[in-house]
Amino acid sequence: MLLQHLRCAAFELPFRQGHGFGRVVPEQVSEFLQFLREAGELHLSGQTFFWMADQYPAERVSLRSASPDRVLLQVEGEDGWQTIGEVDEASAPWMVHPQAIYLHEGQTYRVEALDLDQNLARLHPSQADYYTEPKRETTVQLIATTSEAEVRGATKATGDILVTTQVVGYQQLRWFSQERLGEGEVTLPPTELHTSGYWLALAETTVEELRALGLWSNDPNNYGPNWSKQRRLARARDGYRCQMCGAPEQGREHDVHHKIPFRTFASYEQANQLANLITLCHPCHRRAETAVRVRSGLAGLAFALGHLAPLFLMCDRNDVAVHHDPKSPLTNGQPTVVIYEVIPGGIGFSERLFELHDQLIAHAHELVAACPCADGCPSCVGPGGEEGRGGKPETLAILAALS
Question: Can you list the alpha helix ranges (DSSP code H) found in 26-69?
């Protein structure tokens, strides 16, 4: 990507030897300029590099993405398959995965197939009254830490990270009302992004204080000593069949789901009563978990910070993404929120968030505290499930510990 920017810069104004380019040191710039000279794109006269190629270099730079590779969108017409547009390769798994709804020039299309080897997506016109939202699983690994500092209640840091994302399914949501109509699963390979990130790791003392107050909901559920027995009884009662789709157990035991979330009960005996248990296959269990989701305080913190960050950075909300993990490999198992740049390699957003940490936390606390909702909404910490909880008190407690 730097090479493309240097091409555009050289087209606009000649480079003199020994000059830097933004934060890129002169020595590194010189190496790139020599490469472009050897490729016949620049001409060196005296101490100055001049653009000499025929093409306009900005034509090869996308305004939508830093990824140079494209996936062509094709629709079948009278003369065969015709290309109507393109998306960058990095965005294809979540924008045009199979069964995704894609809008192009006011027309709705359904994606029938995505071939990442051929960089092709096949679409058909559709009259669907809904849109799709991808479901992704993400892991973040540390490559190198650039800066790190202790802050109130946590450690803030920035550096190079590897983000691995896999689209595993999608939701169907009705236009305007956002009513959830259904879900589906997809099988796509994971994608990797080497980029820059800013992260916040909660201190163990902060977690212990929140846990003592009953305001830490990120610990794994301890279903109690009778869970194995109750699970067997529930599956036997339900005939070893999923109670939503009717699928029998085949090779893998079905899951047993709490109708009312486990965390809402005072004891495991109450939560594990057979009347509160239902046998579900794995896909149906995932759908049920979404409906009764109990949003944790860490998830609420990630939601609030992720929505405020673009305002501080003066960037598009799709230029950064947020991830939270109660046992993050990025920070040796500490509860962590990561805001990372979607642009490969990063362009400095992470370093800026590192500098603005205190302001970001203060504004997040103010935003959540001032929101009139009772327990979470899209304006503060995000909504809970249809029958779940939003985790607003937990999020406020974390923000108070960090402020």
Answer: 26-38
Cβ neighbours for 120, distance < 8 A, ≥ 6 positions apart: 71, 72, 74, 114
CA separation for the pair 384, 371 (Å, rounded):
15
Calpha distance 172→4 (Å, rounded): 38
Question: Do residues 341 and 320 lie in contact, with contact meaning Cβ atoms separated by under 8 Å?
Answer: yes
Rg (CA), the chain: 25
For the chain, residues classed under CATH 1.10.10 are 2-60
User: Please, which residues have CB within 8 angstroms of residue 22's CB and are 6 or more apart in sequence?
Assistant: none
For residues 165 and 195, give the distance between their C-alpha atoms in angstroms, rounded to a whole number: 13
Q: What is the pLDDT of residues 123-138, one digit of tens each?
A: 999 999 999 999 888 8
The neighbour count for residue 356, using CB atoms within 10 Å, is: 16
Question: Contact at 8 Å (CB) between 4 and 57?
Answer: yes
Cβ-based neighbour number of residue 171 at 10 Å: 18
Of 2, 69, 348, nearest in space to 10 by CA = 2
Q: How far apart are CA 29 and CA 35, in angstroms?
A: 10
The whole-angstrom separation of Cα 63 and Cα 12 is 18
Residues belonging to the chain: 403
How would you label 329-339 residue by residue, b for 16+ Cβ within 10 Å and e otherwise? ebbeebbbbbb
pLDDT tens, position by position, 158-209:
999 999 999 988 989 888 877 878 888 888 999 888 999 999 999 999 999 9
Model's pTM, two decimal places?
0.69
2-60 folds as Arc Repressor Mutant, subunit A (1.10.10)
d(C-alpha 92, C-alpha 115), whole Å? 10
Structural contact between residues 138 and 323, judged by C-beta atoms closer than 8 angstroms: yes
Within a 10 A sphere around the Cβ of 217, how many other Cβ atoms? Answer: 21
